[in-house]
Structure formats: C-alpha cells, structure tokens
Design goal:
There is one protein chain. This protein is an all-beta fold. The protein is about 0% helix and about 45% strand. The chain has one helix at about 45-50; strands spanning about 5-10, 10-15, 15, 20, 25, 30, 35, 40, 55, 65-70, 80-85, 95, 100, 105-115, 125-130, 140-145, 160-165, 175-180, 190-205, 210-220, 225-230. β3 and β4 form a beta hairpin. The longest helix is centred in the first third of the chain and has 4 residues, at about 45-50. The termini are far apart.
C-alpha cells in the first residue's frame, strides 16, 4: 500500500474451476513500501524481521534466520537474527537491513548493532553500505572484518558486544546496511540484534576523522591515571586533507569521570 513502510509480501494463487479449488501456491518474497526515515531502530520484532533480507551467497542452505533464543536464565525467548553453521563451507551469508532514506550528504551517520557468538568458536563478520540488498551493490565498508570475542554467556555485559560505525553518503537517497557473516566452516552460531541508524547531532563531514591507533595503559597499582596514545587524523571525515601546518587538538575522557 502506498505511504506505508517497506514490508515483506507473498502472493498466493489458487486455481478455481467448476466449483473446485486447487491448493494455494505461494510466490517468492516481495519487499514493497517506503524506506524508513532516520532515526530508526530494530529489535527486531517478528514483524520487523520480515522487512530484512537474508542472502545465502554460497548457496549452501545455511543462512541468517529470525529466531527466539535463550541467552541465560534472565534472558528467555530473546528475538534475534541467527546464523547457524555449515559443516561443509565457510560462511558467506548476508543480512540486509530494510531500506532507509539518507537525506543529508553533509551529515555523519551512525550504524550500531549487537553481535555475539554462541560459544568460544571462531566466528567473524563485517558490515557494508549498499545501494541495493545484494552483495554486488556495496559502496563502502562500515565495520571491517572482525572476529567475535563476546559470547551469549556475556549477554548481561551488553556494551561488550556492541559495534558502531560512522559514515557519510555520496548522494541523498535510499541505502541498505548489509551484515556479512564470514565464519569458517564447522563453527557454531552468530547472533545479531539491536540495530539502529541515525544522523549524529553536532557532527558533519567537515569534522575531523576519528583518531587512529588508539591505545591506553592503566596507571600502576590502581593509580587514577592512564597513558593514552593515538594518531591524529590528517583529513576531514569526507577525505579533504589538512594542510601540514594545521593545528589539531584532542581531548581524552573516561566514562563516569568529569
């Protein structure tokens, strides 16, 4: 229906003749509707999950699916997207978020998600930005290939399994975030949930890029200090280089400290 957000539809067809009706045959999944506007977040609920797109790139039949899982006594029937391992092929499986509208080429956007593994197996993923829900339509990398270290047993430590990416778009339009599970064969499970997209208040593409090579070493014997090292950026967020004599300053903050 016009004016409604993108959702999944299935057409069912039955033959009728001389008072007799055949069994129904269902079509493939059809995504239709308007893209989401920002900010937007997905738990996902079961209804939200139908607007996502799973893509089994290696055709092995093991792909990302919506499921309810138990993540410990305090977290029963938690809705997630779940990748279940293949014993014969490395994972090459995508989960595409629903279409979203990005209207400001000068804005810096944040993608955030929760991703963790079932147990201490070798699980990995990455995330990219796309113009269509298809692996061939990628335009930039949001989260570099990453090996997971947090397990579902650590689920109470929510922030330990969150991943964030900051990015901009080349032109205003509709884009998709795609998450790529890349675990080796014969591992176990990858869980994904708590997805969000938003424009970051107070940030623009003319802001400096983030610092790199960030490292912190705690002070000795409980001293309330730390040695922090990092490399300052050499360009703005959208890649415009700074002059060699440009002065940049950085501030270091610790959670819970003024």
């Amino acid at each position: 229906p016009a004016g409604e957000l993108v959702e999944n539809y299935v057409a069912s067809v039955e033959a009728v003749f001389d008072g007799k009706v055949s069994e129904k045959t269902n079509s493939n999944d059809l995504k239709y509707g308007d893209p989401y506007t920002l900010p937007v977040s997905f738990t996902p609920t079961e209804k939200e999950s139908r607007a996502f797109t799973a893509y089994d790139a290696n055709g092995d039949g093991n792909t990302v699916q919506f499921a309810y899982v138990n993540l410990g006594e305090a977290h029963q029937n938690v809705p997630v997207f779940l990748y279940n391992y293949s014993s014969s092929q490395d994972a090459d499986d995508w989960l595409f978020l629903p279409a979203a509208s990005f209207t400001d080429v000068n804005a810096v956007y944040e993608f955030r998600m929760n991703c963790f593994r079932s147990d201490k197996y070798q699980e990995s993923f990455e995330a990219k930005l796309f113009t269509a829900p298809n692996p061939d339509a990628a335009i930039s990398t949001l989260i570099e290939p990453t090996e997971l270290t947090t397990t579902k047993g650590d689920y109470d430590e929510m922030f330990a399994s969150y991943f964030s990416a900051y990015f901009n778009v080349p032109t205003a339009g509709t884009y998709y975030v795609g998450i790529h599970v890349t675990s080796p064969k014969d591992q176990f499970r990858v869980f994904m949930r708590d997805f969000s997209l938003k424009a970051v208040d107070g940030m623009a593409v003319t802001n400096p890029k983030a610092v790199s090579a960030l490292s912190a070493v705690a002070g000795a014997k409980g001293a309330l200090n730390a040695a922090v090292t990092f490399t300052l950026p050499t360009a703005t967020f959208n890649g415009v280089p700074y002059a060699a004599d440009k002065d940049l300053t950085a501030s270091v903050q610790a959670a819970g400290c003024d």
